[in-house]
Amino acid sequence: MGSTVDAARMEQNGSMTEKKPTVVFVLGGPGSGKGTQCANVVQHFGYTHLSAGDLLRAEIKSGSENGTMIQNMIKEGKIVPSEVTIKLLQKAMLESGNDKFLIDGFPRNEENRAAFEVVTKIEPEFVLFFDCSEEEMERRLLSRNQGREDDNVETIRKRFKVFMESSLPVVEYYNSKGKVRKIDAGKPVEEVFEAVKAIVTPKNEKASA
To answer: Which domain holds residue 182?
Structure first.
């Protein structure tokens, strides 16, 4: 019985489910350097980089009804519902024409994670987790963004705390499924990318390398 329901669901979801894209979740605290590494992966491996935060900001900027709702929720300090972010991600995935995606800064919590799998029927291929100490992240953010108002010590610590409380359970969930690829993000950029490359390089290429 279940298979008929699944088939019907797949038809409803259209091309999204048909070609089952490769999705890699990219998680790491503020200042862990994941943005830089995502850019490297895009350049070397042809992935499309999707940042949940960027998509939400672009939607707000567009002035759409959806964008206004998102803006109001953020202003009121509310969390944007998972479905809203997931729909934006799905739309961006379809529009890109690609089938390999780095989804950056999402899922931010367990609810995001569960909703993504329910809505898209996609489980990530693996999770790239940029592990970096709080001291190192703090040092990087303070030296990198002099003058950026959200980069004072107190705010950085708050952001780190939120990351630890919300996103670590997601990392732990995928770790229990053997899907987490942990990277020591405290090393220099080049060394970190070597570690990333070793993980992202397709298996068949590794064999012939």
So the answer is: 22-198
Identify the three-state secondary structure at position 103.
Answer: strand
Residues 153-191 have pLDDT tens digits of: 777 788 788 888 888 899 999 999 999 999 998 888 899
State whether the Cα torsion 111-109-19-127 is positive or negative: negative
pLDDT digits (tens, 9 = 90+) for 192-208: 999 999 999 877 665 55
Is 62 a domain residue? yes
pLDDT for 39-83, tens place per residue? 999 999 999 999 998 999 999 999 999 999 999 988 887 878 999
Q: Which residues are annotated as a binding site for CMP?
A: 112
SS3 114: helix
Evaluate whether residue 103 is within a structural domain.
Answer: yes
Q: Total domain count for the chain?
A: 1
List, as residue ranges, the binding site for ATP: 31-36, 144, 187
Residues in the chain: 209
Asked if residue 7 belongs to a domain, the reply is: no
Find the CATH number of the domain harbouring 115: 3.40.50.300
Instruction: Give tens-digit pLDDT for 10-25.
Output: 444 444 445 689 999 9
Phi, psi of 100 (to 5 degrees): -130, 125
How confident is the model at residue 89, as a pLDDT?
A: 96
Output the known binding site.
Answer: 31-36, 57, 78-80, 105-108, 112, 144, 148, 159, 187
Distance CA 16, CA 96 (A): 12
Please indicate, yes or no, if residue 63 is contained in any of the structural domains.
yes
- Specify binding-site residues for a ribonucleoside 5'-phosphate: 57, 78-80, 105-108, 148, 159
